[in-house]
Design goal:
Layout: H1 11-16, E1 49-56, H2 68-74, E2 78-84, E3 89-95, H3 109-126, E4 130-136, E5 141-147, H4 150-167, H5 179-189, E6 195-200, H6 207-217, E7 221-228, H7 230-233, E8 242-245, E9 248-251, H8 256-278, E10 284-288, H9 293-302
Parallel strand pairs: 3-4, 3-6, 6-7, 7-10
Antiparallel strand pairs: 1-2, 4-5, 8-9
Length: 309
C-alpha cells in the first residue's frame, strides 16, 4: 500500500545519513537505561581478547596467565598479557522482500530498513568495528564479508538499494527465499563474537526461526530491529476501500468489528514474535515507518523503558 510514502531509497540519501549516525552506540558503555546496558561485561561478553605481549610475572598478576613453557625456557615466571579486541564484526541482515514494500506514512518499510542499515553501518565504522552483512529478497541472498572500511559499507548499502528498487519495478517474486534462508547464511558467516542486527518486519517467523536464532545467539550478540507501519497495527475500513497483497486484491470491510479483529490479529502476531525471542533474551527494537529512523534509534538506546522480546 502506498499513500504518499517514499517508495525507494537512493545511495545518496543513505550516504547523507552519515551525519545523523550519532547519539547511539552498539558499545557496552551505554546510558544506565539503555537497551544494551548490562548486556556486555566486555565488548564481546569477555571473549574479545587478543594476545598483546609476553612479560615477566609481577606481584598481583593472575597466576592463570603464567606461560609455563616460557617460564621454563627463560628461567623466570612469565605471563601472557591480553588486550581487549579493538574491533569486532557487525553483520547487518537487511530484509528487502515483498512484504517490506508497504508504507502508509513517510516511507515504505523497505526504505526504513535501508535507512536503519545505513545508520548502523556508519555508526559501526565510527566506533572502529568491521561492517558486513546480508541483504535478501525472495530470489537471492547477497553476502558482504565484514571489513573496517567505508568501501565495504557502500557495497552493503548499494546491494540494499538495488534490491529495494526492484520492489518498485516488478510484481511479487516467484522465488522461495525466506527469512530462515537468510538466517542460515548468517549462521555460516557469524561463527563467534559478532554483533548480528536483523532488520526486518519478521514476516515468516516460525519454529525454525527460533532454532536458528538460538544457534546464532549462542556465540554472538543479536539485536532485532522490527520495522512496522502504523497502518499495519491498526486499520479502519471505509466503504470502497481495497487492499492488495502478492497479486491478490480484496475489499476491506467497514465497521468496528473488522477494526477490532485486525488489531487483535496484529497483537497476536506480536505475541508470537515475543515468544520466539523471549527465551533468548534478544532485544527487539520497534522502528516505525512514520518517524525519522535516527530519532527513533537515539530514543530507543537511551530510553528508560525498552520493549524487549
Amino acid at each position: 500500500m502506498r499513500t504518499g510514502a517514499q517508495i525507494t531509497a537512493s545511495i545518496d540519501e543513505l550516504v547523507r545519513l552519515k551525519a545523523e549516525a550519532r547519539g547511539f552506540s552498539f558499545l557496552p558503555r551505554q546510558p544506565v537505561h539503555s537497551l544494551l546496558s548490562g548486556r556486555h561485561a566486555s565488548r564481546l561478553r569477555g571473549r574479545g581478547l587478543s594476545f598483546e605481549e609476553l612479560r615477566r610475572y609481577q606481584p598481583g598478576d593472575d597466576v592463570h596467565l603464567i606461560d609455563w613453557r616460557a617460564t621454563a625456557r627463560r628461567g623466570a615466571a612469565h605471563v601472557r598479557v591480553y588486550d581487549e579486541e579493538r574491533e569486532r564484526p557487525v553483520l547487518l541482515v537487511v530484509d528487502q522482500r515483498f512484504p517490506m514494500f508497504f508504507g502508509s506514512r513517510r516511507a515504505m518499510k523497505s526504505v526504513v530498513a535501508a535507512e536503519a542499515a545505513a545508520l548502523a553501518a556508519w555508526r559501526t565504522l565510527d566506533g572502529g568495528d568491521r561492517i558486513g552483512g546480508i541483504v535478501f529478497n525472495e530470489e537471492e541472498v547477497v553476502e558482504v564479508r565484514p571489513h573496517r572500511s567505508a568501501a565495504r559499507a557502500m557495497v552493503l548499502l548499494q546491494e540494499t538499494v538495488r534490491l529495494g528498487q526492484r520492489l518498485a519495478s516488478r510484481h511479487p517474486a516467484e522465488g522461495k527465499v525466506g527469512l530462515n534462508d537468510a538466517l542460515q547464511a548468517v549462521h555460516r558467516m557469524a561463527r563467534h563474537d559478532c554483533l548480528v542486527v536483523l532488520i526486518s518486519d519478521l514476516d515468516g517467523v516460525n519454529e525454525d526461526t527460533r532454532r536458528l536464532a538460538m544457534e546464532i545467539a549462542a556465540h554472538n550478540d543479536v539485536l532485532i530491529v522490527l520495522v512496522y507501519d502504523p497502518l499495519g497495527a491498526s486499520l479502519q475500513g471505509h466503504p470502497g476501500m481495497r487492499a492488495s497483497d502478492r497479486g491478490q486484491e480484496w475489499e476491506i470491510p467497514a465497521g468496528a468489528q473488522f477494526r477490532t479483529a485486525f488489531r487483535d490479529a496484529f497483537a497476536a502476531k506480536l505475541d508470537e514474535w515475543r515468544e520466539v525471542f523471549r527465551a533468548l533474551k534478544v532485544p527487539l527494537l520497534p522502528i516505525s515507518t512514520a518517524e525519522p529512523v535516527a530519532d527513533q534509534l537515539r530514543g530507543l538506546f537511551g530510553a528508560a523503558q525498552i520493549p524487549t522480546a
